[in-house]
Design goal:
alpha+beta; two-stranded antiparallel ribbon; 6 strands; 8% strand; disordered N terminus
Length: 369
């Protein structure tokens, strides 16, 4: 297999073996066994954000890297802790590094994070550490909450054979921390990219494999990977996130709310529902469909407009009822005062055919009163 094929191929998902029944977690180290080594001073100011001395040598310098003294063993170190009874769902950071001295007395979980159970706070990682809006310049640290990153950059790998052999070595060491989706090895560059199925497993593996070794006593440089420029992978990742969002919404949605929304929408559209909330077909108002051919059209409830006795029928014309009542009132006043009045109940004659004895002066159009 060529190097180009190694960079583009997709490895089948490697499923981790199901864990056995847990027992009380053991103490990985004894207090005081791990020697605390301070970072050698290479500058005048120490930057706690980048964990290095400002103004000194590069943080990624190989001479400044010290191999980790401990390493987690999931099969032997996993077990029950106080977190299993208190309900805390975050993992122990020192357990992932293999140096937790508390064992079953620890306040955090001593198991791999469960991707099926979402964390209570999405702005924190599986170790309850606060994420930030952007990554560090060296792609280290906790990570960003603006992007779901499942890929790790693994540097300083010693290649002793062809690409497939290096890929098998990387797979053997990293599959211990969760389900691996694919591995991409850049041959002759001592770099590999490991993509996990779950972001939680990637967070755990980043801490578990930091400054560890594979098979050649190297000191690994594990960082978060930058965004994959491959457009195919971008489309696949977007589709995967959309499917995960739909599944999460469906899992949290109450079926009673779904039925209620369907009933409200059916009432708005004028559809008829049976007692179980299903749409009735045309010609089946009672739910007993005797029609031989099934109908796919919806039956709408047509309600004819009705006029209540309290609301008299509106006259068909240019004047509404209020205007006519007002005219009748003023006509009655003029009649009491002795002025001639045209009856409003009679139909007006056509233009040019006024009744005998009724001139234009009788309309009082020029009367000041």
């Amino acid at each position: 297999m060529s190097s180009n094929e190694l960079e583009s191929n997709t490895v089948a998902v490697v499923k981790a073996k199901p864990a056995k029944k847990l027992k009380p977690a053991r103490k990985q180290v004894k207090p005081g066994d791990v020697e605390k080594k301070e970072t050698p001073q290479t500058g005048k100011e120490y930057n706690i954000w980048y964990n290095k001395w400002a103004g000194g040598d590069r943080e990624d310098s190989y001479s400044n890297k010290v191999k980790s003294q401990t390493r987690c063993n999931i099969r032997k170190d996993s077990g029950l802790t106080r977190a299993n009874t208190t309900g805390i769902r975050y993992c122990c950071l020192f357990f992932s590094r293999g140096c937790c001295p508390y064992g079953w007395e620890c306040e955090y979980l001593h198991v791999l994070p469960d991707p099926n159970n979402a964390l209570p706070d999405s702005s924190k990682d599986c170790f309850a550490r606060e994420k930030f809006s952007d990554y560090r310049d060296d792609m280290g640290g906790v990570g960003s909450f603006n992007r779901q990153n499942r890929t790790l950059y693994v540097g300083r790998i010693k290649e002793t054979g062809p690409g497939p052999e290096t890929e098998e070595v990387v797979m053997r060491h990293f599959k211990e921390w969760g389900d691996v989706e694919r591995i991409r090895v850049l041959q002759y560059r001592s770099v590999a990219f490991v993509t996990y199925v779950s972001e939680l497993h990637a967070q755990f593996a980043k801490e578990a494999m930091a400054c560890q070794s594979l098979d050649n006593d190297e000191i690994l440089n594990v960082r978060w990977a930058t965004e994959d420029p491959n457009p195919v992978q971008k489309v696949a990742e977007k589709r995967r996130l959309e499917e995960m969002g739909q599944e999460a919404i469906q899992a949290r949605m109450d079926p009673r709310i779904v039925d209620a929304m369907r009933a409200v929408r059916a009432l708005e559209d004028g559809d008829m529902l049976d007692q179980e909330g299903e749409l009735l077909e045309q010609g089946d108002p009672n739910g007993d469909n005797d029609v031989d051919e099934p109908s796919t059209k919806r039956q709408r409830m047509e309600v004819p407009p009705q006029i209540t006795p309290e609301q008299p029928a509106q006259p068909l014309g240019l004047l509404n009822a209020d205007t006519l009542e007002g005219l009748k009132y003023f006509a009655e006043i003029r009649k009491q005062n002795g002025f001639p009045v045209i009856s409003l109940n009679k139909t007006a004659p056509p233009a040019g055919h006024l009744p005998t004895g009724l001139g234009l002066a009788q309309y009082d159009s020029d009367d000041e009163e």
